[in-house]
């Protein structure tokens, strides 16, 4: 069955009106309880105009299962954004979030236990799924039409394998951020660095002041190691440049190319420098064992000054933490090494289906629409979410920081590149790249040794 795509301005206007209604009806994210303590309240979805969803037909009583790596606290907002679709179509969306997603999805597919839909955060893993399991179903025409309208050609390309379009983008993120405490910087007289050299000089100054500047953690269950790959990718963009980055992710140059080894050395200059790390946790080897989602926490008690993490780290701070230029924490752009260049590392999830039942195609199409993007923005009252969907009304985003991220995604001067490990074959990007970065810290493996081992693991076909 083909789901008809929405083309009318009336429908799009309805989606915008729905998002605005959600915003108006959402409780404040800083309400107080009976004791006067600050609480975080989720938005509530009010009654909506279900005519927007008439195109999907009668789907009452059907179910769509979703498997994803998106877990709490973000899971609540994800599920809430499905409410209009569920209410108006009669479809029940069964959500399963797992920190073991990357390791378990292929296992489930090979065992014949596929979900209806999965949110795949690695185009390289999508390619592996398509080529090795044959389980993925090409996206329906309606989904493709939405992506053609609301996303750039490059974003559609990330969801395409061997010329067939499978997976529409969902959320997007920017990883080129460094988190810090504005009040601690002001008290110490530190300026936010705008160049790489300034950032290193600031690190040295913090050491001279008797403190450890950086905190980091790469532990993440079966996915341990991925935060370190983000560090490497960001530095490759700055050391080797976007063109070499593209050649690296597609294996036109080997993983152990001298430019990549140099980039690993540059990462080591910060993260394997005993004077620089690991504030609040221990020495260099503690990075491998420190959980990624709590690695920035020492910033709040003054034990750490800087922590490199993506925009979605906004939701990892304890409840009540104010994310603002004059708040408890904020983030600055990870500086370029070359004047006039602005490389940005980012990522996102892609909605791939493993069944072509009408309700599955309908949900896949809804998630690719401007309607869903605006509902998702409106219900994400805690912030920490953006999308590359051009139909997104940035005014619906929860925070100035989210709007900053949206502006960076749309900045024509920026050189955006998708997360490199996510573009590589799954056995590398979600395999040896992760494990070798663990060895980089836990076993003090050298840059050359790490690069050589990953290169040796690259599939020959």
TrEMBL record:
Signal sequence bounds? 1-26
Protein name, UniProt field: Carbohydrate ABC transporter substrate-binding protein
InterPro entries linked to this entry: Bact_solute-bd_prot1, SBP
The protein's matches in PROSITE patterns, at most eight in alphabetical order, are given as:
PROKAR_LIPOPROTEIN
Tell me the protein family, please. Belongs to the bacterial solute-binding protein 1 family.
Record keywords: Signal, Transport
Q: Does the keyword Aminoacyl-tRNA synthetase apply?
A: no
Task: Report the source organism.
Answer: Sanguibacter suaedae
């Amino acid at each position: 069955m083909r789901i008809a795509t929405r083309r009318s301005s009336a429908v799009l206007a309805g989606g915008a009106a729905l998002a605005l209604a959600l915003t108006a009806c959402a409780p404040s994210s800083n309400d107080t309880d009976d004791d006067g303590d600050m609480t975080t309240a989720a938005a509530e979805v009010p009654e909506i105009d279900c005519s927007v969803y008439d195109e999907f037909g009668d789907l009452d009583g059907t179910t769509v299962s979703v498997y994803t790596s998106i877990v709490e606290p973000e899971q609540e907002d994800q599920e809430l954004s499905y409410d209009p679709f569920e209410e108006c179509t009669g479809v029940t969306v069964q959500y399963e979030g797992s920190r073991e997603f990357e390791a378990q999805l292929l296992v489930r597919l090979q065992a014949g236990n596929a979900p209806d839909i999965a949110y795949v955060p690695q185009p390289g893993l999508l390619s592996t799924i398509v080529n090795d399991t044959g389980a993925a179903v090409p996206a329906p025409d309606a989904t493709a039409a939405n992506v053609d309208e609301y996303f750039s050609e490059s974003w559609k390309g990330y969801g395409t394998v061997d010329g067939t379009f499978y997976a529409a983008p969902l959320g997007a993120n920017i990883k080129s951020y460094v988190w810090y405490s504005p009040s601690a910087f002001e008290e110490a007289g530190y300026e936010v660095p705008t160049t790489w050299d300034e950032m290193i000089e600031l690190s040295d100054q913090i050491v001279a002041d008797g403190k450890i500047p950086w905190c980091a953690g790469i532990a993440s269950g079966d996915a341990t190691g991925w935060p370190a790959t983000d560090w490497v990718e960001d530095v490759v963009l700055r050391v080797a440049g976007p063109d070499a980055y593209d050649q690296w992710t597609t294996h036109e140059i080997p993983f152990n190319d001298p430019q990549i080894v140099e980039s690993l050395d540059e990462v080591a200059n910060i993260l394997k420098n005993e004077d620089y790390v690991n504030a609040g946790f221990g020495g260099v080897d503690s990075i491998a064992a420190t959980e990624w989602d709590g690695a920035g926490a020492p910033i709040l008690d003054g034990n750490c000054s800087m922590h490199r993490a993506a925009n979605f780290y906004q939701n990892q701070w304890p409840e009540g933490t104010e994310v603002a230029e004059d708040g408890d924490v904020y983030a600055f752009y990870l500086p370029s090494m070359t004047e006039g260049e602005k490389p940005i590392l980012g990522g996102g999830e892609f909605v791939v289906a493993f069944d072509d039942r009408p309700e599955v195609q309908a949900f896949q199409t809804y998630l690719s629409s401007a309607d869903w993007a605006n509902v998702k923005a409106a219900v994400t009252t805690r912030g920490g979410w953006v999308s590359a969907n051009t139909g997104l009304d940035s005014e619906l985003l929860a925070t100035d920081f989210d709007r900053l991220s949206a502006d960076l995604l749309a900045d024509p001067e920026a050189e955006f590149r998708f997360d490199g490990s996510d573009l590589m074959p799954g056995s590398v990007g979600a395999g040896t790249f992760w494990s070798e970065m663990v060895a980089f810290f836990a076993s003090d493996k050298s840059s050359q040794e790490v690069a050589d081992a990953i290169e040796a693991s690259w599939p020959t076909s």
